[in-house]
Amino acid sequence: MSKKVLTVDDSKTMRDMVRFTLSGVGFDVVEAQDGVQALSLLDSTKVDLIITDINMPNMDGVTLVKRVRGGSNHRGVPILVLTTEGGDAKKAEGKAAGATGWIVKPFTPDKLVQVVNKVCP
Amino acid sequence: MTGSSFTPDNLAQFKATFFDECAELLVDLEERLNEMQAETADSEALNAIFRAVHSIKAGAGAFGFTQLVEFAHRYEALLDRMRDGLVQQTAAVATVLIHAGDILAGLVEAARSGEERSKDYGSEVSVEIDLLLAQVDGLESVITPVAAQGCDSDGGGEEPDRQPDTTVYVIDFAPRTELFRHANEPLLLIRELKGLGDLQIECFTDRLPGLRVMEPEDAYLRWRVTLTTDKSLDEVREVFEFVEDDCELAISAVAAEPEPREEDQDATAAGTRDADPAPSVEAPAVTDNAAPAADDAPATDGAAPSVQPAEERPAKTVSSKAAPQSGGVSSIRVDLDRVDRLVNVVGELVIAHSMQSQLNLNSGADFQSNQNNEDMTRVIRELQECVMAIRMQPVKSVFSRMPRLVREVAAKVNKQVRLLTEGEQTEVDKTVIEELADPLTHMIRNAIDHGIETPEEREAAGKQPMGKIKLSARHAGGNIIIQVIDNGAGINKEALLKKAISKGIVSEDAKLTDEEIEELIFAPGFSTAGSVTDVSGRGVGMDVVRRNINKLGGRISLHSTQGKGTCFTLTIPLSLAVLDGMLVAIGSEKYILPLASIIESFRPQGEQIRALAGGGEVVSMRGEYIRLIRVHHLFNIKDAVTDPRRGLVVVTETANGGKVGLLVDELIGQQQVVIKSIQENFDPVPGVSGATILGDGRVALILDIEQLKTMPAASGELWRPSSAAQTEQLAEEAQGNGQNAHVSAPTTDPEGRQLPITV
Questions:
Q1: Mean pLDDT, chain B, as a whole number?
Q2: Among B42, B21, B18, CA closest to B32
Q3: Which residue of A57, A111, B431, B723 has the lowest C-beta tally within 10 Å?
Q4: Do A106 and B152 touch (CB under 8 A)?
Q5: Does the model's pTM come out above 0.70?
Q6: Interface of A with B in 80-99 (CB under 8 A)
Q7: In degrees, to the nearest 5, what angle opens at C-alpha B282 toward C-alphas B280 and B286?
Q8: What order of strands is seen across the sheet that includes strand B688-693?
Q9: B3 interface with A at CB cutoff 8 Å
């Protein structure tokens, strides 16, 4: 019934905030600490939305987006990348890799929910 | 921070996590920086340093530690240039990085302990970093301080009050294949536009190739959307923020004009009408006309409230004559408190006027003043209706959340369900609407989970695999009737009874009628789901729904045919401010009973009254025993009728579908009363839900039947017929007074017509 969101971030603070905000409006939230973890989780779990940080150890966000888009099981799932203000280059990079949209850090809970609703109502 | 934010508790928790994380990151940072100084570092070390600083900055931004954010931002910029190979990794640079690490740690500590660092804390390092950056980016690069709080305006919060000028935008939108490759969805964009104002949508299929050559993953459709909105061009453009590079997009403002309110009007013919800008329609108390705030979403609902329909109707405006010729409806926003004050004042006026009428009656006023008085009554009643209408809203705002719920629940339990809605425009008081969402959500969940069968079961039963749920609303008298009807399996009475017996709700040898068995599902803690699904069956059941509905002064009933389906009916008063009541006398006191809960009233014969061994009495009515509640005992009224054969037993329905009999002296009549809360000045009074002021200026308390039921019966004298002769004598007296022993409580309306009470 409720949709499943994967939040990928090496910072637990960020994952906690995303989890708290989105579970508060009825999403199921699953977490991964980097791109590698995220991909292995996506192999076994179907999610409706991926929110990923760009800078992470082992596999960064842009690579993760490329891999997901190149894969078969989550090719059509919306992916939002977390960018910092003024990270226009990163936005473009994420977009080119196949991201659906972006959220500018730091964000308010409202903003996060608003952007999530934009791509995954 | 605008809009909703975290509670202090959450925030404290997040902060604690953040500082734990910072501590780890700073340790890691120091290690990596030492490696760097020892020149054993690799590019991964630099990446790790960058990530540590970046993570600290992100968290600090979320909590608004400005100084920390600004410094981390600088530090990060330098590391970024180093990663790009623009700044060489020299010993001097390594020293700057280490110093910067110390400053960062100091700022984190300051943030943790909540103490302020001076403005120029770490300024030497900042200057060194700026110099290094300047060598790369040129001198004009001055790191601009970044906002430490959600730097984007959030679209979900309160909008500032501004002069709403409506503009008509024509948006030509043709997605390219990339748009789909990036998992964007044109329909979602159109849905988002719908939230901004009135839409007219045309879809062009001229680019569609033949089926043979059509690529299923390519984009062929084009849309032209005509949007009438009070939003700015930027706000409209923001909808397309993520897809601007993946589509052909042209947005042009046509002209400002009053909003055409007829759906069939062609808005593109703008400018042909006299432009007489009318303010946009913003009905009082229709808050969801604004961009839906994300936190409006009920927690049960997966996301933001569903999209506004393009043809949102304003709440009924009071004046029906002032329709401007432009076809637009003009309205103003009114604070809800003002409306409530108005409702209250009108309530007072009604009371004051009925006092005056009473006085006229008693003093035998002449024909003329009676005539005037009747005119006045009519006008005041109309005034009251008008004021009530201001608070009325269509139930659409609740109904429109349900399709999504149905989709999600049905998908979860692998059933096919279609939802039909009817009477969405039916209006009801705003407070009632707010209270409706939860019960309806629960009932619809139940209908899908327990009512509708799986497609296989349905086909086996010779039904369409797709189940249907109909949600309808209509007015009936002073009530709104809402029905949830499903064409599922209905209620399996045997299973229900078995379950109730196993749960100890009814005894094993109980003989229950079909209605009584159906009533069992309202018993607390009852659930017929074979297993606890994650849709329903969490022990919160129909008993809670019934309680919620009763709180609104309404009733819930059900009717079910096995194999055919179930129908739940909610009957709820349109407003919580007035109540259809029955005025009863108990001794010299007068009380109001909610008319909706009265089933009938009768004068019992002596043999109909039975005393119970454990105290208390029952009265038998057509073979059914009903508990008798002596209200005069509960409220300690000395001069009341204590002999039930001389008084009346008013049979009322209780929340769990049972019946109790209230002993009163007599029924005075039916009347609409204005409810006054007594909670403001008293603690909750047991047995009393509110008060009203009668025509003669006296206060009458409104009885709360649910509470009367649970109040400990005062140990009063129980009445027993002492002899058969006495009984006969009483019966004769009753005959002589031309009263039947069974009175179906006829009452009169103001015109003097007999009104049988039907409940």
A1: 74
A2: B42
A3: B723
A4: no
A5: no
A6: 82, 84-86, 95, 98-99
A7: 160
A8: B666-674, B578-586, B589-594, B699-703, B688-693
A9: yes
